[in-house]
DNA sequence: TGCATTATTGCGCAATGATGCAATAATATA
DNA sequence: TATATTATTGCATCATTGCGCAATAATGCA
């Protein structure tokens, strides 16, 4: 039915990563499992918003959740996302350095 | 002014990558510089759409352009984006394999 | 059972993004 | 100079996304 092509799958996955609040959540989860009730106070948004972000990342396979009582604990399922973010940071640093050099040259 | 935080810069860059047509263009440019007039017929979209995608990727530092006559040649400036896409593919393969295994188990 | 806590879903709103047509800019050529 | 080619920009439209309030579900506890 769907017959998703390679670039569409890639874009879809990257789309999930490409959101500041979701990245913030990922970095927060980096040092271990946290329940939504621990994530919420750290973020500056409505719990419903965070919930949707968490669901989206779980559906993408980035996170996994575990229920315990009324709480739901989330943790990283694909640590490789941090490799991706490292690569992005490399590129961003390169960009920043180049812009700085260009600015210096313009003096 | 802007005071962009780390996650915002990362998300912004990933947002540029997270679009099927742009990825298609990137893969097409992988084997070397191409002018817009070569890119256009390969894509199933209006030239104006392709132009905007190219500009966006150039602004993000992913591509670089060179003018020659009426033609404008684009090429990859950050080959590291393919490392990122490789990582994404790894994750997607992992996902696909897991879903396949789950499906097999359900028989 | 009744109540509190935690998390999610329904819904509408505002902002953003992708698209295509038409018009424009820039260059080459007859 | 007039015309054709190449690429971009202006503009309108449509779809998607992120957001927050309110309502609902699910569990634990008095």
Oligomer: homodimer
Q: Kindly, what is the distance between the CA atoms of the first and last residues of chain A, rounded to a whole number of angstroms?
A: 58 Å
Number of E-type strands of chain A: 3
Give the helix proportion of chain A (percent range).
55-70%
Q: What number of structural domains do the residues of chain A give?
A: 1
Q: Briefly, what CATH class of chain A?
A: Mainly Alpha
Low-confidence stretches of chain A: none
Q: Biggest sheet of chain A, in brief?
A: 3 strands, antiparallel
Radius of gyration of CA atoms of chain A, rounded to a whole number = 17 Å
Average pLDDT number of chain A: 94
Strand content of chain A: 5-15%
Strand order of the largest sheet of chain A: 1-3-2
CATH superfamily of chain A: Winged helix-like DNA-binding domain superfamily/Winged helix DNA-binding domain
Q: What would CATH call the architecture of chain A?
A: Orthogonal Bundle
Tell me the greatest interface.
A-B, 36 and 36 residues
- CATH fold assignment of chain A: Arc Repressor Mutant, subunit A
Structural class of chain A: alpha+beta
SSE diagram, text form:
The structure is a homodimer of 107-residue chains.
Chain A: H1 6-17, H2 20-29, E1 34-35, H3 36-42, H4 47-59, E2 63-68, E3 71-76, H5 80-105
Antiparallel strand pairs in A: 1-3, 2-3
Chain B binds a DNA duplex (30 and 30 nucleotides) through residues 15, 19, 21, 35-37, 40, 45-55, 67, 69-72.
């Amino acid at each position: 039915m769907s017959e998703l092509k390679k670039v569409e799958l890639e874009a879809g996955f990257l789309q999930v990563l490409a959101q500041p609040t979701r990245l913030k959540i990922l970095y927060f989860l980096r040092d271990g499992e946290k329940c939504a009730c621990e994530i919420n106070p750290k973020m500056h948004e409505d719990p419903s918003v965070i919930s949707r972000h968490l669901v989206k990342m779980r559906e993408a396979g980035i996170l996994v959740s575990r229920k315990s009582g009324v709480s739901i604990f989330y943790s990283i399922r694909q640590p490789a996302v941090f490799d991706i973010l490292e690569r992005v940071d490399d590129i961003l640093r390169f960009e920043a350095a180049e812009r700085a050099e260009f600015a210096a040259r313009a003096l």
